[in-house]
Amino acid sequence: MNIEIKDPFELRSIYERRFEPDRNAYRRRLWQTLVRGYFGRYIGRDDCVVDLACGYGEFINSVKCRKKIGIDLNPRSEEMLDKDVSFHFHDGTKPWPILSESVDVVFTSNFFEHLPDKGALKAVLFEVRRCLKPGGRLMALGPNIKFVQGAYWDFWDHFLCLTELSLCEALETNGYRVVQCVDRFLPYTTINGPEYPMALVSAYLRLPMAWKIFGKQFFIVAQKR
Questions:
Q1: Which CATH architecture has domain 8-224?
Q2: Residue 3 to residues 68, 110, 123: CA-CA distances in angstroms?
Q3: Tell me, what's the pLDDT at 2?
Q4: pTM recorded for the entire structure
Q5: What is the three-class DSSP state of 201?
Q6: Are 63 and 38 in contact, with CB atoms under 8 Å apart?
Q7: Strands 103-109 and 132-143
Protein backbone atom coordinates (compact mmCIF):
# COMPACT_ATOMS: atom_id res chain seq x y z
CA MET A 1 0.00 0.00 0.00
CA ASN A 2 1.38 3.42 -0.97
CA ILE A 3 1.21 5.72 2.06
CA GLU A 4 3.27 8.54 0.56
CA ILE A 5 2.27 11.94 1.92
CA LYS A 6 1.12 14.09 -1.01
CA ASP A 7 -1.78 16.00 0.52
CA PRO A 8 -0.66 19.64 0.28
CA PHE A 9 -2.62 20.59 3.40
CA GLU A 10 -1.05 17.80 5.44
CA LEU A 11 2.37 18.87 4.19
CA ARG A 12 1.60 22.44 5.19
CA SER A 13 0.55 21.30 8.65
CA ILE A 14 3.66 19.14 9.09
CA TYR A 15 6.07 21.90 8.15
CA GLU A 16 4.30 24.62 10.10
CA ARG A 17 4.57 22.39 13.17
CA ARG A 18 8.15 21.33 12.46
CA PHE A 19 9.70 24.65 11.44
CA GLU A 20 8.73 27.13 14.10
CA PRO A 21 8.13 30.66 12.71
CA ASP A 22 10.35 32.20 15.39
CA ARG A 23 13.34 30.34 13.91
CA ASN A 24 12.80 31.48 10.31
CA ALA A 25 15.36 34.28 10.59
CA TYR A 26 17.95 31.85 11.97
CA ARG A 27 17.34 29.36 9.15
CA ARG A 28 17.75 32.11 6.58
CA ARG A 29 21.08 33.15 8.09
CA LEU A 30 22.17 29.52 8.30
CA TRP A 31 21.46 28.80 4.63
CA GLN A 32 23.05 32.05 3.52
CA THR A 33 26.18 30.90 5.35
CA LEU A 34 25.99 27.39 3.86
CA VAL A 35 25.61 28.75 0.33
CA ARG A 36 28.32 31.35 0.74
CA GLY A 37 30.71 28.99 2.50
CA TYR A 38 30.17 25.78 0.52
CA PHE A 39 27.29 25.18 -1.90
CA GLY A 40 27.86 28.36 -3.89
CA ARG A 41 31.08 27.00 -5.35
CA TYR A 42 29.03 24.68 -7.58
CA ILE A 43 26.86 27.46 -9.03
CA GLY A 44 27.81 30.01 -11.68
CA ARG A 45 26.34 33.49 -12.03
CA ASP A 46 24.89 32.58 -15.45
CA ASP A 47 23.35 29.28 -14.30
CA CYS A 48 19.72 28.25 -14.19
CA VAL A 49 19.17 26.54 -10.83
CA VAL A 50 16.24 24.39 -9.70
CA ASP A 51 15.61 23.86 -5.99
CA LEU A 52 13.68 20.59 -5.85
CA ALA A 53 11.42 20.45 -2.78
CA CYS A 54 12.38 24.04 -2.05
CA GLY A 55 10.38 24.26 1.19
CA TYR A 56 10.53 27.78 2.58
CA GLY A 57 13.17 28.79 0.04
CA GLU A 58 16.16 29.18 2.33
CA PHE A 59 18.53 27.73 -0.27
CA ILE A 60 17.19 29.19 -3.50
CA ASN A 61 16.71 32.64 -1.96
CA SER A 62 20.40 32.63 -1.01
CA VAL A 63 21.76 31.64 -4.43
CA LYS A 64 23.17 34.16 -6.88
CA CYS A 65 22.49 33.04 -10.45
CA ARG A 66 20.72 34.01 -13.67
CA LYS A 67 17.48 32.07 -13.18
CA LYS A 68 15.94 30.48 -10.09
CA ILE A 69 13.16 27.88 -9.99
CA GLY A 70 11.51 26.28 -6.96
CA ILE A 71 9.42 23.09 -6.97
CA ASP A 72 7.33 21.96 -3.99
CA LEU A 73 3.95 20.52 -2.94
CA ASN A 74 3.72 22.72 0.15
CA PRO A 75 1.25 25.50 -0.75
CA ARG A 76 3.04 27.91 1.59
CA SER A 77 6.33 27.67 -0.31
CA GLU A 78 5.46 30.33 -2.88
CA GLU A 79 4.84 33.05 -0.30
CA MET A 80 8.28 32.40 1.23
CA LEU A 81 10.22 32.78 -2.03
CA ASP A 82 11.90 35.95 -3.23
CA LYS A 83 10.32 37.66 -6.25
CA ASP A 84 13.11 36.49 -8.58
CA VAL A 85 12.21 32.81 -7.98
CA SER A 86 9.75 31.10 -10.34
CA PHE A 87 7.62 28.64 -8.37
CA HIS A 88 5.97 25.41 -9.55
CA PHE A 89 3.40 23.89 -7.19
CA HIS A 90 4.17 20.40 -8.40
CA ASP A 91 4.86 16.77 -7.48
CA GLY A 92 8.56 16.23 -8.22
CA THR A 93 8.01 12.58 -9.17
CA LYS A 94 5.79 13.62 -12.09
CA PRO A 95 7.01 15.21 -15.38
CA TRP A 96 8.24 18.70 -14.55
CA PRO A 97 6.87 21.78 -16.34
CA ILE A 98 10.44 22.66 -17.33
CA LEU A 99 12.04 22.39 -20.76
CA SER A 100 14.46 19.55 -21.45
CA GLU A 101 18.17 20.44 -21.24
CA SER A 102 17.44 23.92 -19.91
CA VAL A 103 18.87 23.66 -16.37
CA ASP A 104 22.48 23.89 -15.18
CA VAL A 105 22.06 22.78 -11.56
CA VAL A 106 19.41 20.92 -9.59
CA PHE A 107 19.77 21.13 -5.82
CA THR A 108 17.76 19.09 -3.35
CA SER A 109 18.04 18.89 0.41
CA ASN A 110 16.27 16.35 2.59
CA PHE A 111 13.80 15.32 -0.09
CA PHE A 112 14.62 11.77 -1.19
CA GLU A 113 13.78 10.33 2.25
CA HIS A 114 10.18 11.53 1.77
CA LEU A 115 9.68 9.40 -1.35
CA PRO A 116 7.67 6.21 -0.88
CA ASP A 117 10.05 3.82 -2.66
CA LYS A 118 12.97 3.49 -5.07
CA GLY A 119 10.66 3.58 -8.08
CA ALA A 120 9.69 7.13 -7.11
CA LEU A 121 13.36 8.03 -6.67
CA LYS A 122 14.12 6.67 -10.13
CA ALA A 123 11.31 8.80 -11.58
CA VAL A 124 12.81 11.89 -9.93
CA LEU A 125 16.29 11.08 -11.23
CA PHE A 126 14.83 10.71 -14.73
CA GLU A 127 13.21 14.15 -14.58
CA VAL A 128 16.36 15.74 -13.19
CA ARG A 129 18.41 14.19 -15.99
CA ARG A 130 15.90 15.24 -18.66
CA CYS A 131 15.95 18.86 -17.54
CA LEU A 132 19.72 19.14 -17.04
CA LYS A 133 21.95 20.35 -19.83
CA PRO A 134 24.70 17.91 -20.89
CA GLY A 135 27.25 18.09 -18.09
CA GLY A 136 24.70 19.70 -15.74
CA ARG A 137 24.91 18.86 -12.04
CA LEU A 138 22.65 17.36 -9.41
CA MET A 139 23.53 18.28 -5.81
CA ALA A 140 21.83 16.06 -3.19
CA LEU A 141 21.93 16.41 0.58
CA GLY A 142 20.15 13.96 2.85
CA PRO A 143 20.22 11.80 5.98
CA ASN A 144 22.58 8.84 5.82
CA ILE A 145 20.76 5.93 7.44
CA LYS A 146 24.12 4.39 8.44
CA PHE A 147 24.72 7.23 10.88
CA VAL A 148 21.22 8.47 11.70
CA GLN A 149 19.84 5.01 12.49
CA GLY A 150 16.73 5.02 14.73
CA ALA A 151 16.43 8.81 14.86
CA TYR A 152 15.51 8.65 11.17
CA TRP A 153 12.01 7.56 12.15
CA ASP A 154 11.38 10.54 14.42
CA PHE A 155 9.70 12.25 11.45
CA TRP A 156 6.24 11.15 10.28
CA ASP A 157 7.00 11.72 6.59
CA HIS A 158 10.24 9.69 6.31
CA PHE A 159 9.98 6.58 4.13
CA LEU A 160 12.95 5.81 1.89
CA CYS A 161 16.24 4.91 3.61
CA LEU A 162 19.46 5.68 1.72
CA THR A 163 23.19 5.64 2.29
CA GLU A 164 25.70 7.56 0.23
CA LEU A 165 26.65 4.32 -1.55
CA SER A 166 23.10 3.30 -2.46
CA LEU A 167 22.38 6.75 -3.89
CA CYS A 168 25.65 6.76 -5.82
CA GLU A 169 24.77 3.38 -7.31
CA ALA A 170 21.32 4.66 -8.29
CA LEU A 171 22.91 7.67 -9.98
CA GLU A 172 25.62 5.72 -11.79
CA THR A 173 23.06 3.29 -13.22
CA ASN A 174 20.67 6.02 -14.34
CA GLY A 175 22.77 8.24 -16.56
CA TYR A 176 24.94 10.17 -14.11
CA ARG A 177 28.61 10.29 -13.18
CA VAL A 178 29.28 10.89 -9.49
CA VAL A 179 31.97 13.56 -9.13
CA GLN A 180 31.84 14.02 -5.35
CA CYS A 181 30.56 11.78 -2.57
CA VAL A 182 30.78 12.81 1.08
CA ASP A 183 29.37 10.21 3.47
CA ARG A 184 29.27 12.55 6.49
CA PHE A 185 28.75 16.26 5.94
CA LEU A 186 26.18 18.24 7.95
CA PRO A 187 24.53 17.23 11.25
CA TYR A 188 21.20 15.44 10.95
CA THR A 189 18.77 18.25 11.74
CA THR A 190 18.45 21.77 13.13
CA ILE A 191 14.94 21.13 14.44
CA ASN A 192 14.77 21.79 18.18
CA GLY A 193 18.52 22.40 18.14
CA PRO A 194 20.59 25.37 19.34
CA GLU A 195 21.10 28.44 17.18
CA TYR A 196 24.83 28.38 16.47
CA PRO A 197 26.78 31.57 15.69
CA MET A 198 27.39 31.86 11.94
CA ALA A 199 31.13 32.16 12.58
CA LEU A 200 31.03 28.67 14.07
CA VAL A 201 29.06 27.33 11.09
CA SER A 202 31.61 28.87 8.70
CA ALA A 203 34.46 27.29 10.64
CA TYR A 204 32.72 23.89 10.52
CA LEU A 205 32.45 24.06 6.73
CA ARG A 206 36.23 24.54 6.53
CA LEU A 207 37.02 21.56 8.78
CA PRO A 208 36.24 18.21 7.10
CA MET A 209 37.66 16.43 10.15
CA ALA A 210 34.72 17.83 12.15
CA TRP A 211 32.31 16.38 9.59
CA LYS A 212 33.51 12.90 10.55
CA ILE A 213 32.40 13.56 14.13
CA PHE A 214 29.17 15.50 13.74
CA GLY A 215 28.07 14.81 10.16
CA LYS A 216 25.11 12.49 9.64
CA GLN A 217 23.99 13.64 6.20
CA PHE A 218 25.59 12.70 2.89
CA PHE A 219 26.34 15.21 0.18
CA ILE A 220 26.64 14.03 -3.41
CA VAL A 221 27.35 15.89 -6.64
CA ALA A 222 26.61 14.03 -9.87
CA GLN A 223 26.97 15.13 -13.45
CA LYS A 224 24.67 14.24 -16.33
CA ARG A 225 26.45 11.92 -18.72
A1: 3-Layer(aba) Sandwich (3.40)
A2: 31, 18, 17
A3: 45
A4: 0.89
A5: helix
A6: no
A7: parallel
